[in-house]
Model the fold of this input.
Amino acid sequence: MGTGRGVALHLDQVRRTFGDLVVIDGMSLDIAAGEFLAILGPSGCGKSTLLRILARLNQPDRGTLTIAPSDSGFQTSYVFQDAHLLPWLTVRQNTALPLELTGVNPAEHAARVTRVLSEVGLADAESRYPAELSGGMRMRVSLARALVTEPRLLLLDEPFAALDEITRFRLESRLRELWLERGMTVVLVTHSITEAAFLANRAIVLSRRACHIRLDRRLPLPEVRDDSLRLSPQLAAETHRLLLAMEEEA
Done:
């Protein structure tokens, strides 16, 4: 699995409230370096809030988040459901933007952008603008922009939810391949049980209230996964286990 470049995260008794609303109450969770974790749960259960705490965009009201190693060079990238591309920039310029903002040497960032656009299948579209792209291509640009910084932690908040099924399948497969190649830690929030089972090595199902963990399941599926796995009894069995945990919250 990858090169082990990911970071480990430890949540200890984390609590997060918004006014009188308790969104996360006493959450403890360990995420291993290089792990691919999927987070499932009903709408409003705190999945996205948890992801924002892992990204250090929100601070918990109580409890701690520990990251190891904790060196200052640690890099996080965040991919949202909406690609959030700048319409006046080309595919290449949108992808390069994080490197320009962080002052990466221009010669180095040109090589990085070329490489990552090839990795996500956009080498022939680098001069096009967002308005000229399909939804799947825009999401590929968003993924390329996240990967170009060579993150040690990649956070994804329902990135493929708005895509058609075939496009989603292709992007899921490519994301899994990139994770294997890079060894980064990946945390995916999704409403799709089949997506969680196909992509992740571990899945947790959260309760409707206060973000408690109802199920924490390591998925005993092949490390290398292709479309043939989607119709396999093994994937069906894991999807069913996750579904049962979700139905208990319905």
